[in-house]
Amino acid sequence: MVQYAIFQNLSTSRNFTSQLENVYAAEMILNFFIPAFIFAWPSFVFYSVAYILPDDYIFLRCILLAILDLWIALLSILFLLFSSSLNC
């Protein structure tokens, strides 16, 4: 015979502190993702232009991918430096 665990009648939807924690988590995520989106859109532009260009423009494609790598490296350094001001 299988015994199942009996939980108390606690629901996260009824618990105010868990809802408040969810609000704080959502605010933290917004504080992080809005600057991340603002600073990351050039990398999407670099990659999409390098992807769209034909194979004849191999030098330009390599330059764009190098700029993409440089931009990602700069972003990783910037987010480490300014993470305290983002309240993450």
Automatic annotation (TrEMBL):
Name by which UniProt lists this protein: G protein-coupled receptor
Keywords: Membrane, Transmembrane, Transmembrane helix
Source species, domain of life: Eukaryota
Transmembrane segments: 29-52, 58-82
